[in-house]
Structures are given as C-alpha cells and as structure tokens.
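Review box. Two proteins, two foldings.
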Amino acid sequence: MRIRKIVTFAEETRIEGFKEAETPLVLASAMAVIENPFAGKYVENLFPLVEEYSESLGELLSERAVACLPGGAESVEVFGKGGLVGTDGEIEHSTAIIHTLRFGTPIRERVQAKNLLVGCDKRGAAGSTLDIPLIHVREDKARGHYISHEVRIPDAPRPNEIVIVFTAGNGSRPHPRSGSFGNELTA
C-alpha cells in the first residue's frame, strides 16, 4: 500500500448561533493520500483497489480519527466517509475502495455502529474540498445528527492520487431544533 501522506485534524465547536454549546462538538477527520495505480487508463476490474486499500485504510483511518476525540471510540455519535480522486482518475476508483464492507466493517466495529457509513466521492484537483456527510452511528432517523464536515489537503490529490477520508464526531449540531421531532418532518 503506497500512502504519500496522512492528514488528521479535529475541529471543536464551542459556540454555535451565538449560544454556547452544552458539550463542545468535536469532528475529527483522518485522510490518506494514496497512489492511484489506475490513473490515466481504463481498467475493467477494480477489485485490486479493494484488496490493496479497503480494509487497511478502514482500520488506519478509523484509529486515527477516533484518537482525536475526547472519550475515544465510546464517544462517537456520527460518522461518514469520502473519496477525492485526482484528475487522471475516475470517481469509480474511490468508490471501489470506500463503498465496500472491507472498508466499513473495521470502522463500524471500532465505534460499535449499526448503520452503514454514508459517503461521497468526487474528482478534483489538489486543494479541492470534500463535504463528508455524517449520520448517527446507530439511529438512522436521528435527524438532529445530519451534518457534513468539510475537508481539504492543499497539495492533494495530485492527478494520479486519491484522498480517502473517514470522519467521526462526538455529537452533531450543537442546538438541533429541526428534523428531530419524529414523523412530522420526514423529508
């Protein structure tokens, strides 16, 4: 597995909407910049990407992100994933890595999640942003936990690279007042 760099960061929100949060919201992302062996060419069988990257990145990135959270794995309430493919690759390349049980199972086991990881993929140049969608790890209808986390690495992905991301958080919106009331808001 060829990883050029790993970037890990945590963002702590203490005040939202001019009101102090009861508990600061911490969102932590771990990102791996990997070589894309299929950049610049069409390859029918993408399973070698799964074999080389999926399970090991699921383990590595979840370990790194969770380590940034106060309370560790037990504190995780939200999670999500994403892939940003360099300009010589296909979106299908990151999809092959992250949208598989080999990537998601080690993550779900680490944070004792029931839900499948939500995720996103896109292609972009170095410095492009990616908005990682987040949902509650166990309650799929916990609408107060729907949020996203923006990530970016200034020098990645290069045209022949992929950035793989896992994000975890100890909560969600600090003062949820919409989308959490039950069945009256189902959209």
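Next protein.
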Amino acid sequence: MFDKRPPIRALEDPNVIQVLLVHHLGLLRSGLAALLNDASDLQVRDVPWSNDPGRLRALRADVCVVDMDGPGAPDVAGMAELCRHMTSTKCGLLVLATPGRPGALRRAYDAQALGFVNKDATPQKLLEGIRQVAAGKRYVDESLAHDLLRSAEMPLTARELSVLSLAAKGATVSEIARRLHLSHGTIRNYMSAITRKTGARNRVDAIRISQGAGWV
C-alpha cells in the first residue's frame, strides 16, 4: 500500500527501455529507481545483488545499471557472469563508478561494460548513458575518461585485481578462494604475481601500493 512507483508499462512496447538497477543500499536503490521511472521511456526494476545473484540472470532487461562500490557490490567474477547472460539477451552493462579508482573501471571494462557514469553525475547524465547503452553504444562520462585511460596501463589483470580487492577488504586466502571458486594454491599464486608486479615486499605492502594508486 506504500508503493508509490508508477504503474508498470507494457513490456512489449519497443519504445520502453527495460532497466535492471542493482544496488546494495535499499534506500538509495529505491530512490534512484523512482527518479529513473519518471522518464517516460524507461521502466526500472531495482534489486540488491546480495539477495540472489542467480535470480538476476532470469530477469529481462535492456540495460543493467550496477553500483561498483560498497561491501555488497558484485565482484568482477559476478559481473562477468552477468555479462555473459546479457550477451544472449542483448542487454548492456552500465556501471556507476567513483573517480580516482581506475582498478574498478578496469574490472568493469573487462566484464564487458558499455557505460561508465560518475556516481556524482547529474540524473541527466545517467539517463543519457542508459539510452546510449540501450542502443548498443559505448558511453563514458567525461569525468571518468582519464581514469579509464589509466586503467589500460595497469600491470595487474582483472583476476589479479579481483583477488587483491578481496584481500584489501581483509579476506583470507580461504575466503578469497571460496568467493572466486578457485583453489588455495591458485590464490597464493595470484598473490605472488601481484606482489611481484607491484614491486611490493609482501601482501600488505602490495595492498598499500595498490590502494595508493587507486587500483583497489
């Protein structure tokens, strides 16, 4: 009785862009969905990633908008899996990102994201990005362009960034292995490669260097 969202528009209307909004914070997610639903050419469904990632793959969308940041945000493995599903349904990925974090942009790019919008951008920027991605075009918020270029020069692979990002949040080797569905030995090999590529003395030093560079 408290749902004030506009009535559902006909799914068969080819002029209506179906948007799946994935955000880990309920209040922000519902507020952003309400804002986007004000546009006559959008129909938005908002869901948390942590609820049931597998369920998202069964939902229909033309564009998936994902927040890159926060403890409940999807990691690169989850995003890549979602992108593989999107390929079959002609759905494009648009990420909401924070400037100064080229590592997050690199992971999103490798996960086949088409759109990149600054989380501090105007609603009009986000609407423009959604419409461009829905049309199959790449959209890069100009405030993120430099970071996206920097991300191409990073020495770490997307998988190494994923491992390092989890390690930076305090995850143990066992926890990282479980999250990424890899063996303990593989995770240790990744950490050794990360330490070597960053010129660090150890894992803690690699995290410090990477955080200072905005990679994680």
